[in-house]
Design brief:
Radius of gyration: 27 Å
Structural class: alpha+beta
């Protein structure tokens, strides 16, 4: 595509330079707790093959069918320094955009799910009672035992059916 190529004169002749669109990394979907501070730029980086220091970056909030740009930044490789309002439960969509001097643009959407503090408190309480690794081991053991029990019941039902016994199982 000729829109992505410029030509540069070098001592060896004419050289073509291909420009890729900028990259946005670290804008993965995330769960946060209600009223927790969440900086939308934390962990998000921008890269470009030729214009890393000259990118135009923005972060927008998409809600109710509208996109509202909240933060623009053109400095260094960091993202916007903006704290998302997490007082309301539900999903919010952040739209990260980076444009280089050639006009190549990349847009990434990130789903931020604001969860009630109830979940946070339950896991915090369980961590205090039983360390998380022990809890996960116990949960795996319970699931293994449940699987074993169901397998035994299933085999027993098959054997009884083979023997033509009329058996009803009430759970």
């Amino acid at each position: 595509n000729m829109n992505n190529v410029i030509f540069k004169l070098t001592p060896n002749g004419l050289e073509s330079v291909y420009n890729k669109a900028p990259e946005i990394n670290g804008a993965n979907d995330i769960d946060v707790y209600q009223n927790e501070e969440f900086n939308v730029g934390k962990g998000v980086t921008y890269n470009d093959d030729y214009d890393a220091d000259h990118l135009t970056k923005s972060v927008s909030l998409k809600e109710n069918g509208m996109i509202r740009t909240v933060a623009n930044t053109n400095n260094n490789n960091n993202g916007a320094n903006w704290v998302l309002n997490t007082s309301k439960l539900g999903e919010k969509i952040l739209v990260y955009t980076a444009t280089d001097r050639w006009g190549k643009t990349t847009t990434v959407e990130r789903k931020v799910t604001v969860r009630p503090n109830l979940y946070k408190n339950i896991f915090l309480y369980l961590d205090l009672l039983i360390p998380r690794t022990t809890f996960v081991q116990l949960l795996n053991l319970m699931l293994l035992d449940l699987h074993l029990l169901l397998s035994i019941l299933f085999c027993l039902l098959i054997i009884l059916k083979i023997c033509h016994m009329n058996v009803h199982l009430y759970l």
